[in-house]
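Good morning N.,

You mentioned wanting to compare the apo and holo forms, so I went ahead and generated the holo version with fe (ii) ion. This is what I fed in:
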Amino acid sequence: MGIMDTERPVPFTIENPERIPTPRYFDAEFYALETERLWPHVWQMACRLEQIAEIGDWVEYTNLGKSVIVVRTKDGVKAFHNACRHRGVPFVGEGGHGNCKTPGFICPFHGWRWNLEGKNTFVYGRHMFSEDQLDPADLALRACRVETWGGCAFINFDDDAPSFRDTIGPVADRLEAHGVGNLRAEWWYQTVLPANWKVAMEAFMEGYHVMRTHPQLQQAAPMLYNAMYGMDTGGIGVPINPNLSVRDNIKAQIKHLGLLSEGMSGMVHEKEVEIARQLADVELPEDPQQAVMMWYGILNHQITEQLRARGENVPDLNAVAVSDPINAVEFLFPNTFLLPMFSSVSAYRIRPLGPESCMFELWSLTHVAEGVEHETVMEPKVLPYDSQDFPPIPRQDYANIPIQQKGLHAIGFDFMRLSKDIEGLISNYNRIIDGHLKGVAPDKLAAATNLLGGNFDGKILDLGF
Ligand code: FES
Ligand SMILES: [Fe+2]
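and this is what came out, ligand included:
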């Protein structure tokens, strides 16, 4: 945390990496700084590529009042700032989608038109304008940076920011090896949480809360959580109960997978739990530790084989577990999460709506065999955050988030105190935010952001600035 040549003053900055000042989660000035200095310079997941599968398909993406249109053209995916070059009216509304192959984008105000390459094709009453107001290069829609990765389009409002790949780092390749680019959405939920966007995100940056927040998971596999978080046994251990028989250990694992599936759908898919149940009585060594590890190897193999036999393009799960290790939760700075376990994935995206309000979206993603009927999910199902229609695990998380937001305002509660060993991601990404607000060089910020790959449940890190 050295002094930088370009350092700009930032209120409520993190001085001690284990202490996060609470006003960062409600102060209007801090929120305004994020709006001005963070969000316009970071890669944001704008849409899933299956939403724009055909030439001319477009999707609108808004964050903090800035709107872009992401469109599929014959030359790949492009993005344009959503404002008419005449008097600035947006072509399309928030959350809109459609196909503009013909006749292109038409401004609803005076009817000027653009094609999907962004070229102006029609000005109503052209002769009434000075020719120099209608210069084609100047009339063309303003392009926004866009990169595709992991089955999604990511946009960045900053033409000079390091690329998406350079920012996210090697975890992008590791996730790709796990096949995240081939997934399709099964469902998509959206809700508004009465909490700062960072409070909502931080509920998914550690597994330390499982014991109290998700007791069903803890009870199904107590050894896993107790060993991981130091109760009873202490230290990191293999999630096996030596007091139980091999059979009962396997039963406990299957029960745990079933609960994860019920809770998260994509994270562990029903079809994967079904395969796990087929393996309840498979032959295993007598030592419970060896047996459970071997059982997971067999499960990975069976999921790979059985889903491939159905025509699904899944990676060899045992091979990628060795070649490209990833965590149960992977965070893509600043606001996207992927939760991969076997072949399917849950995904989250969180957008700020105000200092104490955010939009939380949740996808269940899985592989779909070629030729199998699959309806593209084009719009989220919007639910109140306390809806009983949410799967049990996010419902439990959503119960904490709004009350934590209230607690942050308590007199005398000036900072959150973090575990240096397993809540490090919360400190690390917050200090990268500070780096953006202070004006740390983009290449240094990208190098620090690379370190967040695999940092779930991880340590506080030296970010190098
Ligand atoms: S504002 Fe778009 S045509 Fe006038
Ligand atoms: Fe949780």
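Residues 288-309 form the longest helix (22 residues).

Happy to go through it together on a call whenever suits you.

Best,
F.
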